[in-house]
Amino acid sequence: DFKNIPISPEFTICTKTGTELLPCHEALTSAHHTSSPLCLHRGRRLVPLVSDPYQWLDVDLGKRTSVSAVATQGRYGSSDWLTAYLLMFSDTGHNWRQHRQEDSAFPGNTNADSVVQYKLEQPVIARFLRLIPLDWNPTGRIGLRLEVYGCPYTSDVAHFDGGSALVYKLTGRPSSTATETVSLKFKSLRNSGTLLHAEGRGGRHSLTLVLEKGRLLLYQQQGGSSMSGGHLLASVGSLLDDQHWHYVKLERVEGHLNLTADHTTHPVHLPAELSHWDIDQVTSHRPGGGGTLDDEMPMSGPALSNRNLSGCLENLLYNNLNLIELAKKNNPQGNVTFSCSEPVSVAVTFGDSLSFLSLQPGAGAGTLAVEMQIRTWNRAGLLATSALSVGQGALWLYVSEARLKLLVRRQQRSVVELSAGSGLNDGQWHSVKLSLTQDTDSAPECSNPFGAFQGCMRLLSVDSQPVDLIKVQQRLLGNYSHLKIDMCGIIDRCSPSLCEHGALCTQSWNSFHCNCSNSGYTGATCHTSAYEQSCEAYKHRGNTSGHYYVDVDGSGPIRPQPVYCNMTEDRAWMVIQHNNTELTRVSPSPDEPQHAAFFHYASEEEQLMGVINQSEHCQQELAYYCRRSRLLNTPDGSPFSWWLGGPGTGQEQLFWGGAVPGSRQCSCGLQHNCLDPSHYCNCDADRDHWTNDSGLLTQKETLPVRSLLIGDVQRPESEAAYMVGPLRCHGDKNFWNAAFFDKETSYLHFPTFHGELNADISFFFKTTSASGVFLENLGIKDFIRIELRSPSEVVFSLDVGNGPLEVRVLTPAPLNDDRWHRVRAERNVKEASLRVDEHPPSTHRAPTDGHIHLQLNSQLFIGQTNAKSGTASRQKGFLGCVRALQLNGETLDLEQRARVTPGVRAGCPGHCATYGPLCRNQGRCVEGDRGFHCHCGTSAFAGAFCHQGTRWRTRRRRSSLSGGQEHRVSEEQESAGENMSLSFRTSHSPAMLLYVASYRQDIALLVNAQGKRRTPGASCGGRGRFITANATAERIFAFCFDTPVTEITLRRPRTKAFGHVLIPDLEDLEPELAAVASQGFSGCLSAVRFNSLTPLKTALLTPDPAVRLSGPLVHSNCAAASSANPYAAETTHSLSGTSSIPISSLYPVIPPGVIAVVIFVTVAALVVTARFVCSRKETYRTQQVKASQSEDGHEFPFSSSQADSQTANNENPNEYFI
């Protein structure tokens, strides 16, 4: 082991105007060279004559050294010191590479005497070090004393010319080992070539590591070494052809393989045939290149390069065996030398819009020739421009849409434009050549209509003369500004990609972009999920039953999954289907003693476990139907059947639906009501008639059901059937996890939040306070804080090392209204954003190439600031409720901490103030400990939000529904009017919709054909309409959903009392009205309401003896609205309010003593399609019932049913055939 020791270097000082070097003990022997040490305290000091951004210091360490730290001091007894600088390294004194880490600019000194040492995160192997001053004391000049710390570095190096190779044949090795490792460093002069080929025994399998367009690719090959392609296993790294050393390591630990490139490790899915590697031969080239692919081995990537490596390998180790050292003792193939020589190639970097290089053209008359190689990520930029002869125009050579273009413009002549090439923004080197015959002009053209070029150039020549960029750097040739000479500063911002969840990364010179399409995530880095985490969350947004994507861990690694959300009045069920939820018969089979069924779910394993773990309750129906087929063989026999359930492939379970784990019973055994009391299952009685054991599995640790094994089906008389329902879960433990802070000094604390590169925070709050801090987490300098700064302002504050910033959202209405509000904040390497409720988000862009890691170290405080920190916010603590607090998709258990923390209470009641408006059509919001539900008892509607009408459909026109519900009012209680509403769909007229009988006068709602009205009224077009009627003392107002109001004068005063509500009845009608009523009503009718009465809902959902039905009822889905987008919320319309908007006409159709109210609503066209669809549905349903019957001699009395079908909605309007 070597200790870090100071290195006494030779050093070279190169500046534009010379250097002043003050001696420590002896005078300089040269203005630019010395052999004396440049050291701290007593050493020499560097003070250039001119202090400007173009100074630098080169240090030659004499040989390659492992540099671990640098230390700086200012000039002794002066005001000259550096405050910031850059470090660059090189092996040759050219092709410098900037050292990049969290602080790309190294901090300098604050005075002349103190020493500032900076330790590198990873040691750098180099011979040359370059220090570039960035900033210095504004009242002084550049002044520097320097020491470099490191250790000696030794290595074995081999150089390959593209035709040479090393071959190592393993001998005397064990048959197999648990761990194998191959590691090396390489430096390539080309962007493609084979680095390593490892061949297994017998040549059956091999791995090939190749460099392809600067990326490192690992291939698997089969069938011998003559193949030219293979199966792509991994791709890592980028821009690895930059003529710098790169580290590569292949490591197999048992059946796992890791590929490391520099500091990035990529796990490789290893095929089963390579789980025991058994390498027989290692070579630095791929034998047999140039062949064709084996047809039996499809290639999952580009064809392997036929090139061998042109460059150098260093420290090629196989299981710590140095293969280059061994090769020195043997004869390698081809021209292999054991030193690394490389041509000098000086590049220049154009880093921003101010970068330019100006050169005088050559002396050649009449021609202009320019050659260069370029490397860029940008799709556009100017490469070169030049004036033509005096007054004759100019030319521009530029990149546009990733193509090379030439524009020549002459005065009073047409414009000539040429283009060539494509894909020039791929980060690879591309050659550009331009030759033009012209009348030369010495004055250059300086205009640039195309934007600045950002990228690298090398091998630049003008008029066939190479441009010496070192002379340009020394200001001896041409002119330049904002250039980095003798280096290519291109950075691949997509390797490794900072885009999350599989999003595609694209880049320009200064930035990158993440394409989140089809990923299910949003944001600048595709970090935040676009979906809610449960059906419970969707319900509280007002969404009704339907298909949705849920993301159980938010921004975590588990992908969104499609589920069916069944929203009932009091629960939101999440339904996950599998491959067989139907009732399935098992026929006797003497040749197969057991029948196995396996269930594959629509969700992946981690998605299933996420749903089960976060849900408050899960269940799955398990049913067994039997005739002479025993089940668990209770009480003492070995079970014939069992099932596997739980995580992974599941654990064997010996109980049945409705029982508990370990009981070895069925539901009837626990309830003591089995057919045979001596058995614990009905089927174990072995009866010669059909029976069943069924029930719900509710123990979450045993769910879901993975497979089922049925044993007693081999006897000739045995018959059985089984059904495993979908997985159904409700409740969201995370969504309602809440805490109430009743004092400003109250707070909860949690471990440090780790969100270095990406951090998202979301929560709900409600308060009556005007301000308060929601949360805060501090670091040494970094911090994050979210606070309510005023009643209408939420602020997200943070600092990641680039200086504090704030993201604010101002809301039009105050947020301290004691209602729930949602806050979502996100910080990533590109931006910080904040969103409150559904208001537009506010964002703040992060600086390019700034600090990106959020480094926190204190505890996370909820409801208060960290009082122990001097940098903590002085805002007061939060008073109110916080719930569903999640950081990077993980929910903080506020309730558990609140139970043991004074001043904080677990839970937070009061939800109807926020969610009550979701209850429609006079539904009533009912508070719950963990949420709310809509009570629809007094509404004509049903469903989760009292939004679905109870529908019926008559197929026979004489079907009717009548009731004797009384609605009486006295003279003193006389109301200002009567309110009626209903929805209908029909293609027949005339027809009676509603008839209300009273003791002195009646009201009738009729459908009449347009153009055939004999009495005043209103009419609406279309097949289905929602109508309301409001009768006052003198007038009735009529309104259709999309037509204007019609006002009709009553012919006689309205009665003061109404009696029975009839739908419709022929009794006691006058002939004219009876003629209409005798034809009945054919169509769909729903949501019938008369004042507070709901006769249709009462008849169909809550039967009442006072309601009379004639005709059979058959459930139907006709007239049900379908959503165009099954993953979006259903569109609903709330058509009821404090005052009804009438749509009908009132006119007398009964002789004196009776007044009838008639509503003329249009339905002129026959709805043939609707009737046909309903008929087809009924026919299909009948065929299903027939198909479920047994085809053998034994009647199977059970029909296939499914509680939660993906195509049927339990919350859909209830419709009936009558």
Ordered list of secondary-structure elements with their pairings:
Elements: E1 5-7, E2 10-14, E3 19-22, E4 33-34, E5 45-48, E6 56-73, E7 82-90, E8 97-98, E9 106-107, E10 116-136, E11 145-152, E12 157-161, E13 167-169, E14 179-188, E15 193-200, E16 205-212, E17 215-222, E18 231-236, E19 246-253, E20 256-261, E21 264-268, E22 279-283, E23 310-318, E24 321-322, H1 323-329, E25 347-350, E26 356-358, E27 367-375, E28 381-387, E29 394-400, E30 403-409, E31 416-420, E32 430-437, E33 455-462, E34 465-466, H2 469-473, E35 479-481, E36 483-485, E37 504-507, E38 512-515, E39 521-522, E40 528-529, H3 535-539, E41 546-550, E42 561-567, E43 572-576, E44 584-586, E45 595-598, H4 605-614, E46 617-627, E47 642-645, E48 651-653, H5 667-671, E49 691-697, E50 705-710, E51 719-724, E52 727-730, E53 738-741, E54 748-750, E55 759-766, E56 772-778, E57 783-790, E58 793-799, E59 805-810, E60 821-827, E61 831-836, E62 842-845, E63 860-862, E64 880-887, E65 890-891, H6 894-898, E66 904-906, H7 912-915, E67 924-928, E68 931-935, E69 941-942, E70 948-949, E71 951-954, E72 960-963, E73 978-986, ...
Antiparallel strand pairs: 1-11, 2-4, 2-6, 3-5, 6-10, 6-11, 7-8, 7-9, 7-10, 12-23, 13-22, 14-19, 14-23, 15-16, 15-22, 16-17, 17-18, 19-20, 20-21, 23-24, 25-33, 25-36, 26-35, 27-32, 27-33, 28-29, 29-30, 30-31, 33-34, 37-38, 39-40, 41-42, 42-43, 43-52, 44-51, 45-50, 46-49, 46-51, 46-52, 47-48, ...
Domain Laminin G: 157-340, 346-488, 737-908
GO cellular component, one term: basement membrane
Domain EGF-like: 490-527, 909-947
